[in-house]
Amino acid sequence: MNQIRRSFALASADRYFAVIVNFITLLFTARLLTPGEFGVAVIGLSVLVLAETLHDFGGSAYVVQVDHLTPRRMHAVFTLTFILTFSIALCLFLSAGPIARFYATPGLQGFLQIASICFLLGAFVTPVLALMRRNFEFGKLAVFNAASTVTNAIVTIVLAMFDFSYMSFAWGSLIGALVYLSLCWGWGPQQPIYRFTVEGWRDLSEYGVYDSLKKLLHYAMDAVPMLAFGKILGADGVGLFQRAMSISRLPEKTLLAGLTSVLLPTLSAHARGGGDQKTGLLTSIEYVTALFWPALVVIAILASPIVDILLGHQWTSTVPLIQIIAVAFLFQLPSSIANSVQIAAGAIRDSFTLALVTVPPAIALQIYAATHGLEMAAASLFVICPFTLISSLVMIRWRVPFTWSELGAVMKSSAMVTLVTALGPTAVALYYGGTHDIPVGAGLLGMLTTPFGWILGLRIARHPMLHEVIRFINFLLVRILGETTSKRLLTPWLS
Fold first, then answer.
1. Is residue 376 packed enough to be buried (19+ CB in 10 Å), middle (13-18) or exposed (0-12)?
2. pLDDT tens-place string over residues 32-45
3. Inter-axis angle of helices 483-494 and 465-481, to 10 degrees?
4. Domain segments of the chain: what residues?
5. Which of 109, 210, 259, 284 gets the most CB atoms within 10 Å of its CB?
6. Four-CA torsion 459, 464, 466, 469, nearest 10 degrees
7. How far apart are CA 225 and CA 79, in angstroms?
8. Is the pLDDT of residue 314 over 50?
9. Going along 375-445, which residue ranges are E strands?
C-alpha cells in the first residue's frame, strides 16, 4: 500500500510540475508570438495529436495490465508499436506539403516534417515507459518527464526570442523527445525490449482495438475542431480560440490534477471490497465540483485582467471567448470521473461507447458553429457540455445506481460554495461597471478575495471538503505558530 501511495504522490507531483512549466512557457510565448503564429503551431500540433492516438494501439495499457508479461509479449508490443509509428510518421512526412497547401500556410510543411521525426522517436520510448509504470518506477518517470518538459520549454522560449516563430514549438518538441529517449536508454529497464517478433500479435490486437478507438475519439474532440477552425477561421482564429480554451481549462489541469490521480484507485478499492460505490461516486462529484465550479466562475468574471496578466494586451480578443467557454464548462462533468467509475466497475467498453455517442455530434456542431464566427464556436459548448454531462450520468447509473435527488443534493452544496466564492470578484466587476473594464490591480484584488470566499462558502454550505482544508491549514500553522495557537485559530471554523 505504501508503494501505491508513493507512486500516486509522485504521479501527482509530476503532473503539477508539467502544468507549471507549460504555464511558464505560455507566459513567455504569448508575448513573443502573434495569434496567427501561434495558430500555425496549434494546427501542426493538432495533426500530431491525432497521429499519436494510433501509434500505441493499446500497447501501453497491455504492458501494464497483462497478468504474465513474458519477453515475447514485450517484443510483440515493441514490434507492433514500431510498425504503426513508422508507417504513420512516413505518411505524415510525405503529406506535410499537401497539408500546408490546404491551409495556405507554406511554413506548416517544415513544422509537420520535424513533428514526424519527433513522432517516430515515440516507438522507442512508449514500451519503456509502459514497463516502468508496470514496475511502479514512478520516481524515474517523474525525472524523465521533468527533464524532457524543461528542455522543451527552454528550447521553445529561447528560439521564440530569436524569431523562430511557430517553429520554436517544433524544435522544442524534438529536442525534448531526444532527451527523453536518451534517459530511457541510459537509465530505463535493462531487459531487452527492442526485438522484432510476429508472435503474440493476436492478443495485443484484440486488447488494443477498444483502447485505441476510445483514445482516437477523445483526442479527435480536441484536435479536429482546431484543424477545421484553421481552414474556416484562419491561423489567427484558431490561435485565439486555443488560448481561450487553455485559460478556461486551467482549473481542470491544475486544481483537479492531484484529485483525479487518486480517484480511480479509490473507486476501484470500493469495488474490490464490495463497498458502496455510490457513496464514492457522489463524494467524488461533490469534491470535484466544489473546486471546479468556483474556479470557472472566477475566471469568467475576471477574464479581462487574467488575460492581461497571463497573455498580454494582444490577446484581448480572447476575453469574451473565455467567458463563454468557462460558463459552459459549468455544465460539464470532468471526463476523469466518468472514466474512473466505468473502469472501476469493470465496464471498460462503456468508456468507448460514451465517447462514440458524444464526440462525433460535438465535433460536427462545433465545426458548423465556427462557420458563424469564433463566439458561436464557443457558444456551441452550451449544447455540447450538457449533452455530454447527461449522457455520462445516464451511463454511470447503469453501473452505479443513484437517484437524481441524491446527485442534486451534492451539487446544491457545491453551488452554494460557488456563489459565496464569486461575491468578491463580482463586487469588483460591478464597481468598474462590467467585466470587460476591470484594471489589473482591481483584478488582483478580486483574485485575493477568492480563497477567503471559498473557505467561507465551504463553512456556510457545511461542505465535507472544509475538514480537509482545515486539516491542511492546521498542518502548516502547527509548524509555524505551534499547536496551541493553531487550535485556537481553527476551532471556530470547525464548530
1. middle
2. 888 888 888 888 88
3. 160
4. 1-230, 233-463, 465-494
5. 284
6. -170
7. 32
8. yes
9. none
